[in-house]
Known about the structure:
The protein is 81% helix and 0% strand.
Amino acid sequence: MRQSDLSEKIIIFLSISLLLLFSSCAHMEKEPDTGATDKIEIAKNYLTEGDFQKALETYNVAYNQYPNDSELRNNYIRTIHQVKKNADIAFHRENFAQAGSIYRVLLDNYSHAKDLITSSSFDKEFLISRINTCSKNLTEKGLLKYREGNLREAISIWNDILTFDPENVEVRKSIDTATVQLKNLQK
Length: 187
């Protein structure tokens, strides 16, 4: 075999090898990861629907997956503050059942989000205080209905408390007492 034939075959072999290498690298190239963007949209939809728990859960999972995504982080922070704003609005409108439920969502998610909350406008103690205030106001409203003889409405109000203050022993006792009295009246 001549030297030039051998050189030509080596060049063809190397050309084919490079072509195959570039071709396989092109197939290995990943599509851009849109996971964070998708999660933002999902969380925004939950927020729009008023499902604050799922919105914050979605952001938490996404933030754990994409901790360096600044758009995700900024949206997560805005959502936390938007949820708090909704709770504050309900609180000031004296819709204590709704406010208490939203403050509970914030409290339940506080450990995940506390590093993102730079504002001193709320912390864990603030959330607990607001939950307690909502519970107290609804307890008094329930007692008023109870004293008026409207046992069903009293029980309903007290059940609202248990949605955001499930460990409230006083309210559980009040519900039990009113339920027994209601059954006795129905006999």
